[in-house]
Amino acid sequence: MLIIIFRKGMDCMKQYTVKVYDNRTEWYNSDNKIHRDDGPAYVHSNGYKSWWKNGKRHRDDGPAVEYPNVVKRYFLEDIEYDEYEYFKKINSCSGKIIEVNGKKYTLVPM
To answer: What pTM does this model have?
Structure first.
C-alpha cells in the first residue's frame, strides 16, 4: 500500500510504502528504508513498537523501542544509550549559540 502524506504548512509531501501483515505493520520511505516521521515505523500486534529514521533506530522524543512488558530502549542514529545518557544527550546545550547584551557565545561542554 502506498501512502502520500501532506501536512498543512509543509512545502513537500512525504511518501511512504506501508506493508501490512497479519501481525505487524511496517512503514518505508521512498528509498525503501524503514522510516516514519510521525510515529513508530514498526508496530507488532503483541504491542512491540519501534521508531526508525532512514533505516536506523532513532527517536528524539522518547524510547525508540517499546516492548509490551514495559521495557524501553533508547536509540539515536542506531546507537543505543541508557535512559540517563539519552536524556543528557538530547537535552545538551553544547554548540548552541546564545546572545547576551548583543554579543554571541557558543556553548561548549564543561
So the answer is: 0.75
> Who's near 62: CB < 8 A, 6+ residues apart?
72, 74
Rounded (5°) CA angle 2-45-72: 105
Q: Within 4-108, where are the H helices? A: 83-90
Going by the DSSP 8-state scheme, the letter that residue 30 receives in this structure is: T
Q: What is the pLDDT of residues 4-32, one digit of tens each?
A: 554 445 556 677 889 999 999 999 998 99
User: Mapping DSSP to helix (H, G, I), strand (E, B) and coil, where does residue 31 land?
Assistant: coil
Nearest alpha carbon to residue 23 among 50, 1, 3, 42: 42
In three-state secondary structure terms, 6 is coil
Sorted by where each begins, the domain ranges of the chain are 2-106
